[in-house]
Amino acid sequence: MTLTPSRRDVLKSLALGSAAALFSPHALLAATRQQKDRLGVALVGLGYYSTDLLAPALQQTKNCYLAGIVTGTPSKAEEWKKKYNIPDKNIYNYQTFDQIANNPDIDVVYVVLPPSMHREYTVRAANAGKHVWCEKPMAMTEQECREMIAACSKNKKKLAIGYRLQHEPNTQEYMRIVNQKLLGKVKQASCGAGYRENRTNHWKQTKELGGGALYDMGVYAIQGARLGTGLEPIAIASAKISTTRPEIYTNIDETTVAKLEFPGGVVADIKTSFGENINYLNIACEKGEIKMEPFQAYAGVKGTSPLGEINHPYEVPWQQAKQMDDNAMAIMQNKPMLVPGEEGLRDIRIVEAIYKAAESGQRVKV
Prior knowledge:
By secondary structure, the protein is of the alpha/beta class.
């Protein structure tokens, strides 16, 4: 039996003659609380998102902290070790990753890798006895998503997907208006998410790694349509894939458009692209329209509706800190995750249906 430092102190007090310490419920409660005040997080993959957003956000979080890293680049390991004072025993590479099971400093593994690697490292982290946070898109296929959910369930560990927007107040406000029908029922919606991607040899241009606009930015547009209508799609009415740079996007989508059908005749037109900057969500309701622009951004998300302005400001990287604090608190309190694995699975099922509709030219049920 391994004793936590706090409980060891309690027993030490007993050995010194302070028997009351052992039987004091306040002492034991304090010891337990001390151990669970903050969760240690290990970032797996030290690319742009970890470097520029998650690591800085972990300096602001209250319920968790940067405890370890996993990287295949020794120079990055050395740089992060110095910058964030990470002990050698909390630094892993992809060969030693499974040894994380023996490290009590690390409670959560945050998978920040190309989508093709999400399933493997989520399953391995869960099998190592760690909770898992996984970046979007959740995985390459619906089956991979199910395997990730099953692994976390089997190991009694929580799984959250990195949909930062569901944690932020402007998104929660338009969702509240829609779900409470404050402007009546939703009639239709349109959503666009994209930017001009000028890199040519990144994993986002490689199909096997999870590249393509639909997997990356497209899940934002799908989320906008789903959250903006408060409904789940029943079919993809139509979809089309195109590119203006076939020398780069040879076998994957640079731009994808699709029409989603929802119950009650509600439809949503979505567009996602690596070829142009688009960032909007329009929700047409019976009593007026909600317009969010930008609807997804690291800061500056805002909008309007007949009920007034939607604008709760904050600075980067507040979204990421809020997301991780929310998820850490859910773990510590043993409550459901705001964005569990099942949420990521829903989007990947829709992604697969959109690709099928684009390939076949036919309506595809979701």
